[in-house]
Amino acid sequence: MTRRQTVGIILGLAFCIALFAGLIYFVKADRAEKRALILKNPGYATGIITRVRRYKGRRISVRYTVGGVEHFLRTRVSRNFLRTHAKGDTTAVIYAKSDPANAILKARLRSSRY
């Protein structure tokens, strides 16, 4: 392998790593912005778990009602949450009063790892 090829490979890898790091940064920043918007003026509702997915990432779907309008939330959850909750159970939902479709689970406030 020539020196030029080696430099090209190193630059290509550096570009890919920078692109991946940038993507992760923007996803985390978007989540933090959404969370801040919700917590700025929060509303509280009780939602019903309508779907539980344990494979390919632990996710649940929750249906909650605000002002007579039904909203749906799909979010990742921890293993511990899945041990204590099943389809049909209720869970607390915190939503932005300015946009009730923008919501998070109250259980997610304790841990921002997911």
Order of strands in the sheet with most strands: 3-2-1-4-5
Class of the domain at 41-109, according to the CATH hierarchy? Mainly Beta
Name the quaternary structure: single chain
SS element count, helices: 3
Tell me the CATH architecture of the domain at 41-109. Answer: Beta Barrel
Poorly predicted runs: none
The biggest sheet, with number of strands, parallel, antiparallel or mixed sense and barrel status, is: 5 strands, antiparallel
Structure summary, number of beta strands: 5
Shape: elongated
Percent of residues in helices comes to 40-55%
- CATH fold node name of the domain at 41-109: OB fold (Dihydrolipoamide Acetyltransferase, E2P)
What fraction of residues sit in β-strands? 35-45%
Distance between the termini: 43 Å
Mean pLDDT: 90
Alpha-beta content class? alpha+beta
**Gyration radius from CA atoms, angstroms:** 20 Å
H/E topology pattern: HEEEHEEH
Question: How would you describe the overall organization of this protein?
Answer:
The chain has 114 residues and is an alpha+beta fold. The protein has a domain at 41-109: OB fold (Dihydrolipoamide Acetyltransferase, E2P) (Beta Barrel), CATH 2.40.50. It is built from three helices and five strands. It has helices spanning 3-40, 79-84, 106-109, and strands at residues 42-53, 59-66, 69-76, 90-96, 99-105. The protein has a five-stranded antiparallel sheet. The protein is elongated and about 65 Å long. The chain starts with a helix and ends in a 5-residue tail after the last helix. The mean pLDDT is 90. This is DUF3592 domain-containing protein. Keywords: Membrane, Transmembrane, Transmembrane helix. The chain crosses the membrane at residues 6-27. It holds the Pfam family DUF3592.
